Amino acid sequence: MNLAKVSANGQVTVPAAIRRRLQLKEGDKLLFIEHDGHIMIDNASATAILRAQDAFAGAAKDFGVAGVDDVQNLIDEVRYGAGK
Known about the structure:
elongated
């Protein structure tokens, strides 16, 4: 268990063990999530990346992308137009 004190300005120093666990760096933002009466804290950047990965899961297969060459072909199509 880790303990942190709230300053008069509402600031909290996140304990080092928690910073390491959340892979927090200076300037990172914290995400406060309320769930079943509890408040959870997470690294907002990491959470956003995981949500994006979940949202795009299976998209490569849907677009027929199997490797780097397929990605480059899609980029070329968008950049230069199909069939040019």
